[in-house]
Amino acid sequence: MKVADILRVKGSTLYTVQPDEPLAKATQIMAEKDIGSLVVMEHGDLVGMLTFREVMVSLVGNGGEIGNMLVRKAMDDHPLTCTSETELDEVRRMMLERHARYMPVMNQKMLMGVISLYDVAKAVVDSQNFENKMLKAYIRDWPAGEDEGKSG
Predict the structure, then answer these.
(1) Which of 14, 64, 93, 139 is surrounded by the most beta carbons within 10 Å?
(2) 79 in a domain, yes or no?
(3) Does pLDDT of 22 surpass 90?
């Protein structure tokens, strides 16, 4: 299974923010849209990722206040990325190694979407459920007497 399969199911709604926007505005968008991350874009290029983790670190570092802080100061400016052709097992490994909960999907310089660890886990569970269903159907339809006389 590839990242493109997740994006196809998830849809293509993207939320972005610019690095020079106030962090307060970015956190308001995240809260209103009930999302855990925003992709930070500048002049059409990916320049960072803002997640609740970066927001919390910034709050703690600033005495519990956002104040006039900009997204640029809080964002991860070297986010982990993948392509739509990246295999799901590779994405899972990358996310676990870097403790990343969100990953922008880039095809060359074009932002295709964002996948979350939740999206990856859901895809794995859905795939396993489908496989289990097929195996159970196969076992139920096993022709009678086909095993008889065979030794294992």
Answers:
(1) 14
(2) yes
(3) yes
Task: Show Cβ contacts of residue 98 under 8 Å, excluding neighbours closer than 6 positions.
Answer: 80
Q: Whole-angstrom Cα distance, residue 92 to residue 34?
A: 23
What pLDDT, on a 0 to 100 scale, did the predictor assign at position 45? 94
- CA angle 133/146/134 to nearest 5° reads 10
Indicate the residue type of 41: M
- Asked whether the beta carbons of 98 and 123 are under 8 A apart, the reply is no
- Contacts of residue 37, Cβ cutoff 8 Å, sequence gap at least 6: 30, 49, 50, 51, 52, 101, 102, 114, 116
- Rounded mean pLDDT of 94-98? 94
Does 147 map to a domain? no
User: How far is residue 132 from each of residues 2, 37, 109, 135, 143, measured CA to CA in Å?
Assistant: 20, 33, 38, 5, 19
What's the token pair of residue 103?
């990953």
Q: Which domain holds residue 23?
A: 3-140
pLDDT reported for residue 26? 97
For range 72-88, the mean pLDDT: 95
Q: Is residue 16 part of a domain?
A: yes
> pLDDT band at 142, cuts 50/70/90?
low
